[in-house]
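To assess whether ligand presence alters the predicted conformation, the chain was also submitted together with guanosine-5'-triphosphate. Input:
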Amino acid sequence: MIGVFKKFANNLNSIFKSKTLDAESIEELESLLYTADFGTETVEKIIEAIEKNLKKQTKGDNTDPLKLAETIIQEQLNGSEKSLAFPFEKKPKVIMLIGVNGAGKTTSSAKLAHSIQKQGGSVLLSACDTFRAAANEQIKSWSERLNLELISSHHGADSAAVAYDSLLAAKKRAHDLLIIDTAGRLHTKKNLMNELEKLDRVLKKQDESVSIENWLVIDGSLGSNSIDQAKAFNEVIPIHGLIITKLDGTSRGGSLVGIYQALKIPIYFIGTGEQPDDFYPFNIAKYTKALFEKFES
Ligand SMILES: Nc1nc2c(ncn2[C@@H]2O[C@H](COP(=O)(O)OP(=O)(O)OP(=O)(O)O)[C@@H](O)[C@H]2O)c(=O)[nH]1
Ligand SMILES: [Mg+2]
């Protein structure tokens, strides 16, 4: 994960490199934090703390401003870290990935399956995106690449029926985890949003005791727009966890803070690329370390 936020860290480094901290460099820092999507509250807190410290500095206290910023970001993320402990208490655990179009649901389904597989768990993928024409091919190719079992149907089929069959199969074959990949949907399309409720209902009808976790997949490079969409999802269906994708190659490494501040839903994983291993359990300390990494330039 280190190096993922290189762009941000480089800019940060260049602001502070060989410069004394003054009103101008604080202003530069403020705009960098804004463009990195840290969100108003966090940016204000960081700047306030640095300015306060600057005033104190003349009296001999010179705390590193980057350390101050790092501490404040860590505070803002307090409670955001949640890990998916394997083995699970109950088999199969069901995780349904939901979100807007192109957020990274299908790729994250494969990555999540792969991470459990690497720990010795068996995973069943359920292709519940029966809506987009090429969706079946995409998830099939992941299942072949990673040697994962897959339950799918034809384009246009009832996605709730696929989910139902998948849960039956997961129980019969004693899988540890069932991952349900759903179709991308806009939060404003009521019929598509209602379909999520139906998936949940149908699974519970088969097995009242089944524990289903709905994880929202958010594209971390999109900024505050995705936060509004996430809020709308949370109104239709309870969201138990987040995966934040596409944190590679973006200078918006701070979006994660804004997303957590707005939603207060734990972040399980972050996606940092298109390969199966570009997927990390979210860890506050590692994340802030990557943000504030010092580079020689
Ligand atoms: N760079 C990068 N690309 C990613 C990441 N996650 C997904 N992608 C890419 O984003 C695109 C969309 O990913 P999908 O997994 O198909 O997204 P989706 O949410 O399933 O899309 P729909 O099913 O169409 O709603 C693909 O080209 C992925 O390779 C990531 O963490 N980093
Ligand atoms: Mg998909």
